[in-house]
Amino acid sequence: MTGEFRETIYGKCAADFAEDRLVNLCDPKAGIQTGPFGSQLHQEDYVAVGTPILTVEHLGENRILHDGVPRVSAEDKTRLSRYSLRKGDIVFSRVGSVDRRARVRGTEDGWLFSGRCLRVRPDERKIDSGYLSYFFGLPSFREHIRAIAVGATMPSLNTKILSDVPVPHPRDIREQRAIAHILGTLDDKIELNRRMNETLEAMARALFKAWFVDFEPVRAKAEGRDPGLPKPIADLFPDRLVASELGEIPQGWRVGSVDDGFDLTMGQSPPGETYNEAGQGLPFYQGRADFGFRFPTRRVYCTTPTRFAKAGDTLVSVRAPVGDVNMASEDCAIGRGVAAVRHKTGSRSYSYQFMKSIKEVFARFEAEGTVFGSIGKKDFHAIPCVNPPRDLVLTYEARVSPLEDRIEVNERENRTLAAIRDALLPKLLSGEIRIKDAEKFVEARS
Question: Region 211-229: what's the mean pLDDT?
């Protein structure tokens, strides 16, 4: 029957695939479980040290995000043991973005999940959990689950809705595992690059903070200690701090404003009919929705842009919310929700890290908006700051530029890998491409 297809609610599917309701593919004892009711767990029950409890906010793209996960005590872990997670479980958002899901890895085994989540525990004798989780990532499945969720203003899932969804799948579990392995290899490489970029970003940020926020080399010299820098760099720092309206600053550095040190371009939105998604014109970024880890994602283009950013400019969200930061990876157009900033030395790295460092200043404009937060050009220009010597800024740029270059390479590779995965996913899970042809598909797109 290979090569023959039948129609499903998700589109065409190989005729030799089986199809079952999700509940029939789950563990018969603990298959689909809603998280604890609000009365069973309150925010005040969270503790500093204990068992992590997964919330909707920590559902990444098929991975669980670990930063800032709340925790509960050993007593609550025992009391809520029916809501525990084990490797291979899949967790859904129960309310709101009901198509969000993440698969539990070994590092999350034994965690709990919160009341705004649903847990799916596959029966590994019937279906591979990796395959099932990728099935849940199909655009056609995500569209279907959003359509059948209940609630007009706030969509929500329940165990009955999820239990009844049909799941087409290869009959041979070895084929399911092979499909999950191919897609998982791409995702693992994306995750490795992401973690590497986080490390590189932390290194660049730590050096910026040491030199331009904490003034560590100046303090070391003032105390007669070795600043731990090559002499030509150490000589760029003075040996004492002096008082200023912004607190102690290195001797010879000036207190000024953003306008003194940076070139600023506020975005402007052209008429809506000039936008398109067909790649005509320049990439057009309108705000935070376009921002990624470091670089924005192309979604919309503009044929008659009026305000521009150059490759390497820092992009700052200036409207609802204020202060999110990205970097332009190419020449682009910017709408009124974005400003483009670059230090007058041309340093991309210093510009980026400085804008990240004044997050608290931006937060005040976010909080002061009457309807939503915003910051105008005059207020942006007037933000007070300490202006270090030009040579020191350029030295910082030279030190961290290799890190920035590596981040950009990794980000570009991740976009290619994600595009391959997203193209391969529906083809493998529908049987349009079989395992033996998948490697050729990946090679052709790499």
Answer: 97
